[in-house]
Amino acid sequence: MEALTTLSERPRVKGGQVNMRIGNARRRRRVTSFALGTVAAVLLAACGGDDEPSTNGDGNGNGGGGEVVVGLITKTETNPFFVKMKEGAQEKADELGVELQSFAGEFDGDNEAQVQAIESLISAGAQGILITPNDSEAIVPSVDKARQAGLLVIALDTQLEPPDAADATFATDNFQAGELIGQWAAATLGDEAENAKIALLDLNANQVSVDVQRDQGFLQGFGIDLNDENVIGDEDDPRIVGHDVTDGAEEGGRTAMENLLSQEPDINLVYTINEPAAAGAYEALKAAGKEDVMIVSVDGGCPGVENIQAGVIGATSMQFPLDMASLGVEAVAEFAETGEKPEPSPGEDFFNTGVTLITDAPVDGVDSEDSAWGLDNCWG
């Protein structure tokens, strides 16, 4: 795999303007897109950029001797997305000379392990925490405790509920990520979109913000009316066969797909929360003799982009976890030095690290890059 291009080299969203949706906002707005390299400079200049301490990988450091300590807490340590996030954080921590302590849940949805990690980082004298929450609401009391102790807390990829429970959020616009693949699927199916039989393979029963936003973004992009955009599964469109959960894993994707096929053997469109779940769904479809079913997903990991080339996945929305973590460490380090906190992207309540649709079957009206570009910019 080729090295990731720099922030300023990589276009995130093409077309001059992008639709943005985050949290409970009911409004749609147009925001001029900008090079993240420039925004990163603005972020660090305007906010002093908060740098996060680097991790030693064992979570046992103590931050003594005046060394800046940054904590990274991911949902799991096995998903390639979080592996790449940790990689980006460690590289930046090494560059800045800070200590990184990393922690992860035992499984997707493991809130208790994240609570314990925050307690450990408070005790270790960390200056800041970067966290991808397993439960966006249940973790808030622990985040409050950390902030009251003087730590900077930045949510990565998945916002907290409420979003302002963290000092900042560095993330993909997950609603837009879902919307892009929904728009692509609708345009690809054309008139047959009216006859779609859709399976939605979500994350877990917690309905964390990233799960809800991708699911609801996909449905809106496909042209399905939403009821409560903050809830999965309350839609009444007859084209929806059903929802099932995957834990974001290949095995979970396979089982969820088998469950939904038992309800409706003629499913012809599958949305998945991420690419490991998509790979599992494909295996279930293949075993059922249904390899021609369209699958769309979100992530942009190298295995997922390879599955675009292989025809397993029709389109995926690529996000950039290395950037989320790297910028987060910079923000914590700056906070430790100046006390200043990072600011959101202009016009937004979070810092947008970008999203790009990857497909080898482009359609009019939906900007995208092909899998060759994707392999040059993928992670994992």
Descriptive report:
There is one protein chain. 37% of the residues lie in helices and 17% in strands. It is an alpha/beta fold. The chain folds into two domains: 34-172 and 320-349, Response regulator (Rossmann fold, 3-Layer(aba) Sandwich), CATH 3.40.50; 174-318 and 358-377, 3-Layer(aba) Sandwich (Rossmann fold), CATH 3.40.50. A six-stranded parallel sheet has the order 4-3-5-6-7-13, sandwiched between helices. It has a six-stranded mixed sheet with strand order 9-8-10-11-12-14, sandwiched between helices. The chain has a two-stranded antiparallel sheet with strand order 1-2. Helix 5 packs parallel to helix 6 (209-222) and helix 9 (302-309) runs antiparallel to helix 11. It is elongated and about 60 Å long.
What is the topology, as strand order, of the major beta sheet?
4-3-5-6-7-13
Shape: elongated
CATH architectural grouping of the largest domain: 3-Layer(aba) Sandwich
Task: Report the mean per-residue pLDDT as an integer.
Answer: 86
Spans of at least 5 consecutive residues whose pLDDT stays below 50 are 1-65
Structure at a glance:
The chain has 380 residues and is an alpha/beta fold. It folds into two domains: 34-172 and 320-349, 3-Layer(aba) Sandwich (Rossmann fold), CATH 3.40.50.2300; 174-318 and 358-377, Response regulator (Rossmann fold, 3-Layer(aba) Sandwich).
Structural features:
380 residues; alpha/beta; Rossmann fold; 2 domains; six-stranded parallel sheet; six-stranded mixed sheet; 11 helices; 37% helix; disordered N terminus
